[in-house]
Amino acid sequence: MRRLLALAALLLTLAGTTALTTASPAFAQETEQAPKTSLYEIERQVMCVTCRTSLSVAGGPQADRQRDLIKSLIAEGKDSEQIKDALVLEYGQAVLALPEDDGFNIAVYLVPVLVVLAALVLAALFLPRWRRHARAVAGAQQGPLEPELNAADARRLDDDLKRYD
């Protein structure tokens, strides 16, 4: 139980540290100084509106037009959020590769978190039982560590050991 509490405390600490780091003004300044975006980065996040596949694998005239628009926006110095906003204005919400964060689509975000939490709870519940059971089985199977010697065998062993001294 102590290990579970320690693990939970560690996860909360890491989550808090990550949230504080990304929300800090120093982090914002670092991201402003970093390169704005790349075509590859945007292609992975948007869809071709004609064939409904990721723009990174889409081919055809519509995909090429979308890539040209993205390249021109990158040349203007736009960041990835501004480019995605411009694509949504041009082509609608269907251009975004991520599901919206409302309704049934929220399950895309929640299910993995719930599965990990359920696995941690199951491990915390069953691991101590498995360990106790394994110890009990190992203790029951383990015989005496040293065989008992009768007097004649002990005398013979002592004689043999004396020869090697």
Automatic annotation (TrEMBL):
Keywords: Heme, Iron, Membrane, Metal-binding, Signal, Transmembrane, Transmembrane helix. Gene3D superfamilies: Cytochrome C biogenesis protein. Pfam families: CcmH. Residues 1-28 form the signal peptide. InterPro entries: CcmH/CycL/Ccl2/NrfF_N, CcmH/CycL/NrfF/Ccl2_sf. The keyword Mitochondrion does not apply. The chain crosses the membrane at residues 106-127. The keyword Transmembrane helix applies. Residues 12-159 form the CcmH/CycL/Ccl2/NrfF N-terminal domain. It comes from the Bacteria. Possible subunit of a heme lyase. Belongs to the CcmH/CycL/Ccl2/NrfF family. This is Cytochrome c-type biogenesis protein. It comes from Conexibacter stalactiti. The lineage of its organism: Bacteria, Bacillati, Actinomycetota, Thermoleophilia, Solirubrobacterales.
